[in-house]
Amino acid sequence: MNESTLEQARFLNKTIKSLQNKLLRRFGPITITCNDLDIELTFAQLSTMAVVRDMGSVSLKELANAMQIAAPTASCMVDKLVELGAVTREPSKRDRREICVGLTATGLFAVNSMENQMLQALGDTLEAIGPEYASQMVDIYKRIEETMNLEQPTTTINSQIS
Questions:
Q1: DSSP type of residue 161
Q2: Hey, is 94 helix, strand or coil?
Q3: Do the domain assignments include residue 148?
Q4: Domains in the chain, number
Q5: Which H or E run contains 99?
Q6: Is residue 4 part of a domain?
Q7: Would residue 125 count as lying in a domain?
Q8: Does 53 reside within a domain?
Q9: Is the CB of residue 41 less than 8 Å from the CB of residue 27?
Q10: Helix crossing, 71-84 with 43-55: angle to 10°?
């Protein structure tokens, strides 16, 4: 990689992190009122619930893999979400040793509410930059996605401390 490409990569990395942090500050924690109950959810909890929504009823192991976290970490997150009434945790019908996680109506409402708020914020930003830049941004992200889908996921990070 040449120096110019490396500088561009650094800029994009910094900008993406900055945008992500601004969204996280803007949307977390979120208080959802459902069935006369106020439930405060962190962005991490909402992200977990979004994965469950997108995958359907999912095993704890599959959830941990999808989120790229350790199974015990996923289990703790699920336990807290069960306490809040956002997800269910039940033995699998296929294998009693396996735990399946699903969304409750409250959980689905919370995830959809968060997603709608984020889409509104993103839509406001796209309108603010104008249709030409918004269209260019979409085209660029499509190209990035196409390129990343072509790459082989064989990168291993191997570092040593001297």
A1: -
A2: coil
A3: no
A4: 1
A5: strand 99-103
A6: no
A7: yes
A8: yes
A9: no
A10: 100
What order do you get walking across the sheet with 87-91 strand by strand?
A: 58-59, 99-103, 87-91
Structure tokens at 60: 């704890």
> 71 lies in which domain range?
26-142
Distance CA 11, CA 3 (A): 12
Q: What single letter denotes the amino acid at residue 10? A: R
Nearest alpha carbon to residue 61 among 73, 49, 53: 73
Residue type at 41? L
Question: How much is the pTM?
Answer: 0.74
Instruction: List the CATH number of the domain containing 51.
Output: 1.10.10.10
pLDDT in tens, 44-98: 898 899 999 999 999 999 999 999 999 999 999 999 999 988 999 998 888 888 8
Query: Are 91 and 100 contacting, i.e. CB atoms less than 8 angstroms apart?
Result: yes
> Encoding tokens for residue 103?
């969304």
Beta strands at 87-91 and 37-41: parallel, antiparallel or unpaired: unpaired
3-state SS class at 26: helix
| CA–CA distance, 75 with 99 (Å, rounded to integer) | 10
Cα angle for residues 78, 79, 85 (degrees, 5° grid): 85
